[in-house]
User: Fold these one by one.
Assistant:
Number 1:
Amino acid sequence: MTDRVAVIDHSALVELVGLLHAEGYVVVGPTLRENAIVLAELDDGDDLVSGWGVDTEAGRYRVVRRADDAVFAHSAGPQSWKSFLHPARRRLLSTDTSDGDLTVEPEPEPSRRMAFLGVRPCDLVAIGVLDRVLAGGRYPDPGYTARRDGVLVIVANCTEPGATCFCVSMGGGPRAPAGFDLALTERVDDAGHRFLVEVGSAAGEELLAALPHRAATDADLRVADDDLADAAEHMGRAMPEVDLRALLVDSRESPHWAEVASRCLACGNCTMVCPTCFCTTTEEVTDLTGEHGERWQRWSSCFDLDFSYLHGGEVRTSRQSRYRQWMTHKLSTWYDQFGSSGCVGCGRCIVWCPVGIDITEEAASLTALASREVGT
Amino acid sequence: MTTAAAPTHARRPDPMTPVPHRVIERRRETHDTVTLRLAPTGSALPPFRPGQFTMLLAPGVGEVPISVSGDPTATDGVLEQTIRVVGAVTRALTGTPVGGVVGARGPYGTEWDVPSARGGDLVLVGGGCGLAPLRPALLEALAHRAHYRRVVAVLGARDPENLVFADQMARWRRRADVEVHVTVDRAGPDWPGRVDLVTAPLAETALEPARTVALLCGPEVMIRRCAALLLDRGVPATRVRVSLERNMKCGIGHCGHCQLGPLLLCRDGPVVPYSAAAPQLAVREL
Ligand SMILES: Cc1cc2nc3c(=O)[nH]c(=O)nc-3n(C[C@H](O)[C@H](O)[C@H](O)COP(=O)(O)OP(=O)(O)OC[C@H]3O[C@@H](n4cnc5c(N)ncnc54)[C@H](O)[C@@H]3O)c2cc1C
Ligand code: SF4
Ligand code: SF4
Ligand code: FES
C-alpha cells in the first residue's frame, strides 16, 4: 500500500514524465516557448519549464526569470487544455459522391491517451465545464469523448496566483479538491525543492509507487495547507460579491455596454484564450470535381459579425450586443444552458485582451450602475 | 490503468455524421421553394415529431437546419422537407434532382406538442415558409381529428405566387372539419381570396381563450404581432407556442450559434412557449 500523500523531489517529477511515456501516454505540460509558457507535448521531463514565472496585468504578459527553479510558479498562459480536448481545427468527416451514392466517412477518433501534467485548479474546473457542454448532453461529441476519456490528470495547485486570477470568486480556489489522479503542491525553500503529492486514483497510486518518494510528514501537510490558504488570500482580482447570474440578466439594457463597446475591438481574443469558450463553426472543402468533400470544424467567436448571421442580416450587428452576449453567457446564461458558470476565474481574457478590458471591472461597473438604479 | 479523473462516456451513434438519403420526389411549391422527398439509402433516421428539424447536407456545399414538413403518421422512413432558396446551401439542396443524394441528421429540437391541445381548440398561424413546420402539426391533428374541437389554420404569404402547399391547402379548404383562412399581403385582381395580414383573420376568429392552443411560425414580427393579439384575447402565454430561428451550425447543442439568451434553440427550441420567448424577443440584438 502506497501513501496517499507523499513528497517527491524535482528529479522524480522529471522521472514521472518518462514513466508516463513508458505507460504509452502523450504527456502535455508547461514549457517555455517564445516568451510565453505554453502547454505542449513533452519529449522528456527536461522540457518542463523551470525557473520562470510570469508577470501579468490587463493586456500584458511577460515571462520573468525566477531566483529558484520552480516549475509551476506561473499562472495561466495563452492556451488551455481546451486546445487538446477540443482542437482549434479538426476534420469531422469526408464525403464522396463519385459513384452517384453518398458515402460519409467520419473522421477516425484519436486513440492517443493523454496525460495532462500541471493542470491548474481553475483549468480542472474548466475541463469539467467542457465535459458538461460537449459530452454531458443528449449527443456527446465523439471526438471530444475519445480525447477526454482516459486522460490522466496531474494537478498543480497554485501557490503563486497571478495579478489577474480570481478563481476564488468563481467558487473554485488554488487547491483542487478532487477530480485528479495526482495533485502536486510545489515548495522551494531552505529544505529543498519538492512537491507534496496527493493521490486521487488507482492510476495515480501506481505512478507514485514507481517514483522515489517519502511519506509526507505533518509538517509537509501544514506547509502546503498554509501556502494554499495564503494563495487564496492573494487573488489578484475579485468579482463583486453579488449574484452575477442575476446581475447580467438584469443589466441587458445597461448603458454600460455602449461604454465597453467603445473600447472593445471585437477581435475575439478573449474567446480563443478562454478555457471554456467552446463555440465552433463548420466549413466545407471540395476537390475540383466537387465529388470529394471534407467538413472541417474550427473555433469561432461570438464576436464575429457572421456568428449570428441569418439570411437578411446578422442578429448582433453592434459591438455592444456582441460583448453583452459574451459576458452574459459566461456569467449568467451558461447556468441556464449547462448548469454552471461559464467562467472559472483564470484571468486569461483579461491578460490577452489587446486593450485590457477586464471582466471583473466590467462586472463591478455593472454592479455600481445597477445599485444606483435601485437607489434612485 | 484506469484514471479516476476521466469519465468514461457511453459511445453512441455519431451525432455529427449525416445519413445518406436519395431524392425520390421533387415538388416545386413556388418560384423559389421546393419540397423534397428523401428516402434513406441505408438505415432511416428515428421518427420525427411535428416542429422538429433536420440538418440537411448538400455534399461539398454545406449543412443547414430545415424543418420536417411531412406527415408524422407515415412510417416509411421518408423525410419530406420544404426548402426556400436563399443562399448557397439551399440552392444546392433544392437543385438536387430526383435520384440525387443528400445527407440528413436528426431529427432535432422540440416539438409543437399537438396532443396537448386535445379536448380544446387548435389554432395554427403560419407566414411564408413558416408553413413548412406547421404542416406536420395539422396533419397530426387531422389524423386524430375527434380529439380536438375546432382546428383553425391561418396561413399567409407575401403574394399568391409565394403560397406553398397550394394543392393541399385547396383540399383542406374543402373539408368541413378544419377552418382555413388564407391571406396575402398583396395580390393582382384575379386573386379571389383575402388581401390582409394574418393578424386580421386571427382577430376575427371566435376563440375560447382558456381552451386554445396556438402554434405560430413565420417571420419574427409576425410571431410577435400574432402572439400579442392572442394574449390580448386571453390565451395564456404558456399555451401560445412559437417556432424561432437562429443561425445553427450543429443542431446538437455544441456550436453555440443558436443562442437566444438562456435558450439554445436547437435544443430548447425551435418550438418555445411564448412565455419563455417573449422576454428574449423584447431585447434588441440579443
Ligand atoms: C430550426 C430551423 C428550421 C428551418 N426550417 C426551414 C425550412 O423548413 N425551410 C427553409 O427553407 N428554411 C428553413 N430554415 C432556414 C434555413 O436554415 C436557412 O434558410 C438556411 O440556413 C440558409 O442557408 P444558405 O446557405 O442557403 O443561405 P446563406 O444565406 O448563404 O447562409 C449562409 C449560412 O448562414 C446560416 N443561415 C443563414 N440563414 C439561416 C437561417 N434562417 N437559419 C439558420 N441558419 C441560417 C447557415 O449556416 C448558412 O449555411 C430553418 C432554420 C431553422 C433555424
Ligand atoms: S471568461 Fe476569462 S476569466 Fe473566465 S474562464 Fe474565460 S478566460 Fe478565464
Ligand atoms: S474584450 Fe478584448 S479580447 Fe475580447 S473581443 Fe473585445 S478587444 Fe478582443
Ligand atoms: S445549433 Fe449548434 S448549439 Fe444549437
Note: Residues A 264-270, 303, 353-355, 357 surround iron/sulfur cluster (ligand 3) (CB under 6 Å).
Number 2:
Amino acid sequence: MNEKELAPHIEDINRALKGKVNSEQIEEELQKFRSEYRISLGDAKRAIVKKFGGDPLELYLNPEKKINEIRGDERSLDIKARILSLQDKEIEIEGKPKTIFYGILGDDTGTVPFTLWEAKSLDLEKGDTVHLKNAYANTWNDQPQVNVGSMAGICILDDHEVPPFEREPQQCMVKDIREGMRNLVVTGRILSLEKKSFQTDDGEKDLFSGVLGDESGKIQFSAWHDFRLETQQVIRVTGGYVRSWRGIPQLNFDDSAEVETLDDSEIPSSDVLKDSSNMTISQLARRGGAVDAIVDAVVIDIKTGSGLIFRCPECNRVVQKGACRIHGKVDGEADLRVKGILDDGTGALTMIMTRELTEEVLGYDLDRAKELARDRMDQDIIKDELEELMIAQPMRIRGNVTSDEYGLMLVATEVKFKRIDVEAEARRLLDEVSV
Amino acid sequence: MSMMRREVAWRIFADELNNSSLETSGDDERSPSYIISPLGAKVNRVYAVGVLTEVDNRGTPEEPLWHGRVSDPTGTFFISAGRYQPEAATALSNIEPPKFVTVVGKTSTYRPDDDTMLISIRAELVKEVTEEQRDYWILEAARGLKTRLEAMAEASKMEEVSVRELTALGYDPTLAEGIKKAAEHYQTHGLERYWSMMGDALRYVLPEYEQADTFDRPAEAADEGLTDRVLDVIRELEEETDEDGVSYETVRDAVITREGISMSEFDEIISRLRRHGKLLEPALGQIKSAY
Ligand SMILES: [Zn+2]
C-alpha cells in the first residue's frame, strides 16, 4: 500500500488515539505490521491502537456524517437518515440463498442508495428514521453508496431526529431521472395515456398512467390525481417523485404536485421524439432500464433455447426433451424466439426476440421452420441459421429495457441490420485525426 | 444495489491488449479480475475479429485443447478452447485456416516472472465471418482506441487523475476507472505510437492500401540485424534442450545480457517475430523458431 492509500487508516488510528501519537510514528508502525509481518489492515489498526494505550473500539466510532458528505471510501461510517424506499431481494452467496435489503436513505442534505447485507432482527420499514453505526461506503458507477454489513449496528430513532429533505424543486431531463429522486420538475410530451380504476378504502380511484417524452428519452409516469391530462399535451410537472419497477425508473405525481400545460412548441413533436432515445448499454445500466430505447450493438452470442422451441400448452414454459418442468410429458406447441447477448463495447445485455421478429430475421415463418427442422431431423438448425445471420453483424435494436439481479434485459420491438459504409467511415475518421 | 452484470466485450487491437502488464483483482473472490491496457481499457472479455492463421490441438484426441492464433492489423491474439468451452472447441476444430473469424472470450494471463505478463483469450465463441465483418470490427476497434487515446490525453493534463473529472468530461465510468489505473501504472509518454497504429489499422480497410504491408512500422527495418541475432539466440538455446521450445525468460535473459537492450525493446522484437510468423508459441510462455 502506498502512502495515499494508508492515509485514511492513519487518520482512523489517530482519531482513536485522540491525537496522542504523531502520524509519522503511526505510519511507521502500520508499515511494519503490514510489510514485515503481513498482518491484515483491520488487525493491524486494532493492534496499534492497543499498543499506544487506546481503546480499539474507538476505531469504530466516527463523527457523524451528513449524506452529502459521504465520499464513497469510508471504511466506517455513522449516519442518521430516513429510509425513503426499501425492497428485499434474494441473492445467492456460495450456493446458499440469502435475503438482502436495499433502498434509498435520505436526510436534509440529500439521498444515497444503501444495501443491508445482513437481515437484522429489527423490522425496518420505509419511513423509519435510523441511526447506522459502523456502516461502510463504496462507489458504484461513480456514485457513493452505503453498505450495512455484519459489523454494523442499526437503531431506530424518533422521526424528528432527522430533518426532512427540502430542496428547491429540481429541473431534470428524462434521461437523468433516477430511482429515489424527489421534488422533481420534468417537462415533456404525453405520448400515451391510459386510465385505470382501482379500489381503495375510500372507494374507487382513478390512476392515469402513460409515457412522457422529451428530447433525451422517454419515461413511464403515473398520475395519482385527475389532472385532466390528454395525449400529445406538453406538460410541466413540479413535485414529481421516482419509483422503480424492475429497474425502470417511473415518474409519479399526486395531488401535492403541480401540473401546467405548456405551449406545444416547447417539446418536439411525437414523430421526432420517436427516434430520440438512442442510448449506450452503459447508460442503460446506470439508469437501470428504459422505455422504448434504441441500441446500436452487435449480437455476440445466441443462447440455447433460441430458434425453434416447444412450449408447454399449460404454462407456456419451454419444453425440454418433450417434458415440461412442471407438467411432465406434454405435446409442446412450436414457437420461435431468440435469446441473445447484445454488446456495444460499453456494456452487454440479454435480448429477447419474439416469434414475429425472429421470423422477420429468418425470412420465413414458423411453419417453414418446422418443415426445415423435420427435413433435416434437427431442431437446432434454426438456431444455427440465426447465428449465421446475426452474430457480429452491426444492428440497431429497439425495445424496453428492464433490470433485475441477472442484469439488463431488452425485449425487442424492432430489429434492423445496419448498412455501414466502412470505407467512408474509415476515411472520415482518418481525416478527423490526421494520422 | 449490486447486480450481476455481464462483462462488456472490448473491441481492442491485439497490440494494445498484448502490451498490457497490469492486472487488478477485485475486492473479493466473487468480483472478476481485469487486465488494464496501456490506454485504460479495463478488460475481462474481448470481442475480436481477424484472420485465424493457425490451429492445433495441444491436448489429446480424447480431451482436446485447441490453440489458435488470430491476426488483426496490429498483432496476434492467442486463443484457446478446451472442455469447458465445448462450442468454441468444436468450432476451432472445424475451421481450416486461414479464415476470417470472430472470437469472443475471457482473457487469461500467465506470468513467467514479475515483469512479464502473457495474455491469451479463452474462447467462448469462435465463428467464421466475412471480410466485411472484419473491416467493420477494425472500424469499431479504431473508434474505441481513439476514445481511449483522447481520454488518456485528458488524464495527462490532470495533476491527479480523477474518475469524477473524466466522467464529467463524458467518459464512461468504467473507462474512467481504467484510465486512472493506466495513468498510474504505465508511462504516459509515447502514446503517439498508438495514434499511428490507429491510422495504419484504418488504412488497412481502404482499397488503395490493400497491398501495403501495414504490419511493418518504419522503425522496424533499422533493427533488422538485431532481430536476426535474437532469432540466432533462440535457435542456439533450442539446440541445448530436448523440450519443444525454450522458455520466454531463458531467451529474454540471454538476449538482454548479450545485446544490452531493454526489456521493452526485447518484448517489441519478440512480438514482431511472432507477427511475421518467425516464432511459434508451442505453449503459453514457451517460444520456438518457426524454421
Ligand atoms: Zn407446463
Note: The mean pLDDT of chain A is 87.
